[in-house]
Design a protein that fits this description.
about 425 residues; alpha+beta; UDP-n-acetylglucosamine1-carboxyvinyl-transferase, Chain; 23 strands; UDP-N-acetylglucosamine 1-carboxyvinyltransferase
Length: about 425
């Protein structure tokens, strides 16, 4: 189990460039299975979860060539479907939640898709019903081996239909879209997710020859085609990383520039950090954050009541940033209620912040009230264990602002979502070592 040692309390400075978006990569990489022609993808993040998926594709028979840093070509012209029933696949697929998105493309192109029950972050249940209900509505037969926790869907030919999703699941929508593009006839998906990463997938599929309309809305109409071709695609920067670096700059009173952020795809993120009192300046496609030497003050509602920050499906605030926002609020002037609506257990890292001296009241599994210190007292260094990707980075930001040397164990969780994070932080002045 890897460990970070962090000497906190230092101001940082300079420029940092966000990696390619992890959540987009997991969708886009699975889409290469929809064609036997070459697909080239750029700005792929070099992180554990993405590398695991690339290895899975290679084991499936996809021909993969590395073109340069973050750039790969994929050609799925000789897929080994027998691998899907192997013990090796059952083991490898279980360790990666994003592997669920292999099912839609495999079902669409080959008439069958299998997956072991995926693992991933320990952030509560994330059910797969939306995925499989969509496949069933397209005409697939579903089976589930309870002893092996192994799912399967099969169909001679998928047929387009109307469906109203029970939740606006990003991965569920992506999976159903990838199945529907090769289905016979027209598919209408209402209550579809419309996150920028889902929009990126739809735009890429359209360049490959798909016919998807309504991209960016919650009503997608897909006219099935017989075949898709190759394309080139460049992934967006990771908006969760961008939010992480904004929070880091504020907590360490640092002057930072975040490069090439794709401002127009950030949605509520700049607005929400602005409500925490953090100054952001747009410079071209960069975010400039001045050193907040006098701290930052949370805005109350216009009637004076306490601000609530909650997650919601796009264009609401992504749930992946709530833990970052909670940490940043610990040094604000004022109070805020953090309400995690979309997932369970994501606030249970708060006990580590309490050990560091933060003033946080965990109201219930979904809500926490934060009373800011206004930098009148610093967080105290401590030893902690990263429970998942996002909480791990939130604790890392807390440690970088704290007085003394902190230790974070189980950093493999952080590596699953952040590329060479210790090297990149050292480049802007952080005192962090991997041991």
């Amino acid at each position: 189990m890897g460990t970070f040692k962090i000497e906190g309390g230092h101001q940082l400075s300079g420029e940092i460039t966000p990696q390619g978006a992890k959540n987009e990569a997991l969708q886009i990489l699975c889409a290469v299975l929809l064609t036997d022609e070459k697909v080239t993808i750029n700005n792929i993040p070099d992180i554990v979860d993405v590398n695991k998926l690339i290895a899975l594709l290679e084991d499936l028979g996809v021909k993969i060539q590395k073109k340069g840093k973050g750039s790969y070509s994929f050609k799925a012209d000789d897929i080994n479907l027998e691998y899907l029933q192997s013990d090796q696949f059952k083991q490898d697929g279980r360790g990666l939640r994003g592997s669920i998105m292999l099912v839609g493309p495999l079902l669409a192109r080959f008439g069958k898709g299998y997956i072991p029950k995926p693992g991933g972050d320990k952030i509560g249940r994330r059910r797969l019903d939306t995925h499989f209900e969509g496949f069933i509505k397209l005409g697939a037969k579903f089976r589930y081996n309870r002893e092996e926790y192994f799912y399967g869907v099969e169909a001679d030919k998928l047929k387009g239909t109307y469906m109203l999703l029970d939740e606006a699941s990003v991965t569920g929508t992506a999976n159903i879209v990838m199945a529907a593009v090769l289905a016979e006839g027209q598919t209408t998906i209402y209550n579809a997710a419309c996150e920028p990463y889902l929009q990126q997938l739809c735009k890429m599929l359209n360049r490959m020859g798909a016919k998807i309309s309504g991209v960016g809305s919650n009503l997608l109409v897909i006219d099935g085609v017989d075949k898709l071709g190759g394309t080139d695609h460049r992934m967006l920067p990771d908006m969760i990383e961008i939010g992480s670096w904004i929070g880091l700059a504020a907590m360490t009173k640092s002057e930072l520039t975040i490069k090439d952020v794709s401002w127009d795809d950030l949605g509520q993120i700049p607005t929400v950090f602005g409500k925490l009192g953090i100054t952001l300046e747009r410079k071209g496609d960069d975010i400039y954050i001045p050193a907040h030497l006098d701290g930052y003050e949370i805005q109350n509602y216009i009637d004076g009541s306490i601000l609530t920050i909650a997650d919601a499906p796009w264009p609401g605030l992504t749930p992946d940033l709530l833990s970052i926002i909670l940490v940043v609020a610990t040094q604000s002037r004022g109070e805020v209620l953090i309400h995690q609506k979309m997932f369970e257990s994501r606030l249970f890292f708060v006990d580590k912040l309490l050990d560091m001296g933060a003033k946080v009241i965990l109201c219930d599994p979904h809500r926490a009230t934060v009373i800011g210190h206004d930098f009148k007292s610093t967080l105290k260094a401590t030893t902690m264990t990263s429970p998942d990707i996002r909480a791990g980075v939130s604790l890392l930001i807390a440690a970088l602002s704290a007085k003394g040397t902190s230790t974070i164990h189980n950093i493999e969780q952080i590596d699953r979502g952040y590329e060479n994070i210790d090297e990149r932080l050292r480049a802007i002045g952080a005192k962090i070592v991997r041991v």
